[in-house]
Amino acid sequence: PQALFQLVERWVPAARRAQHLHGKGYGVERLAQAIQAGELVNHYQPKVSVSTGAVVGVETLVRWRHPEDGLVYPDQFIGLAEAHGLIDALTQVVLAQALRDSTTWAREGLALKVAVNVSMDNLHALEFPERITAVAAAAEVKPQSIVLEVTESQLMKDLRAPLEILTRLRLRRFKLSIDDFGTGHSSLAQLRDVPFDELKIDQGFVHGAHHNETLRAIFFASLGLAKELGMEVVAEGVEDAEDWDFLQKSGCDLAQGYFIARPMPADQVLDWVAAWRARWAREHAGGPSSG
Ligand code: C2E
Ligand code: MG
Ligand code: MG
Ligand code: MG
């Protein structure tokens, strides 16, 4: 019986984890409680300039620090928040935390733009622009330093509805970014109508593009289109040295990915930036831009 008991003890958490992987593990009440109790924590992944190595900003990626289950990833609870009207609360909590963290970095002399992922459901609330303007004002962070990322696939399901809110956000000087580009099948005409500042090429067209002609074709078509429309371009999913080398020659502005940095807690960002600058200086010592 003792052995059986141990077996069950080991099996139960594993089963619970497996259930979560299928997205059915958490109830909406538990998630609401987690948002209120401050169990959501922001991790940050740097966006760096491909040509100068400058760290221009970070993207906020939310995690749920679950007391029993450990770190739970957004794929496990963002959909739940969207489906049950919790996404407004979630976005505000995440944004407020991101602005507090960016203020801390700024006090240490590091000015970083902060990107926050917003859901399409956020863009259905007419008061959203005012609400986040208030959050930014309370934190004394300029909207120009705040980037709002919306995935192309969510946008293209219905572009007309959010257009007014996107325009209002733009008028308030927030930066708008179209995320996971290449997976949402937008047309050129649609893109021209939306006032985006930044386009992020989906990791599926970045990682491995150096040895895959099809990926490269989509990558360069996206890059050319975005440049034509005056947007800044970010390559997502830079996972290895080959991806990074490819980007150096591509004409892409910014890069993000595990090769540069994994998402990290706020208190690691300053040290990471120092280490990154040292790595860049080392790798470029004696090169054409030194001295
Ligand atoms: P995303 O905004 O496209 O973020 C990029 C995702 O790719 C992140 O996963 C990141 O950890 C991962 N990633 C970064 N670099 C690499 C790489 O080199 N290789 C690979 N394979 N993956 C990489 P994560 O953190 O699990 O987030 C997944 C998605 O959840 C995000 O995709 C975003 O759409 C959504 N999300 C995250 N935080 C929030 C939030 O606060 N609000 C909302 N509405 N959605 C969020
Ligand atoms: Mg994003
Ligand atoms: Mg993305
Ligand atoms: Mg994504």
Automatic annotation (TrEMBL):
GO biological process, alphabetically ordered: phosphorelay signal transduction system
Keywords recorded for this protein, A-Z: Phosphoprotein
MF terms in GO: cyclic-guanylate-specific phosphodiesterase activity
DNA-binding found in the keyword field: no
Domain EAL residue range list: 24-277
Lineage: superkingdom: Bacteria
Protein name (database record): EAL domain-containing protein (Putative c-di-GMP-specific phosphodiesterase class I)/ActR/RegA family two-component response regulator
Organism encoding this protein: Acidovorax soli
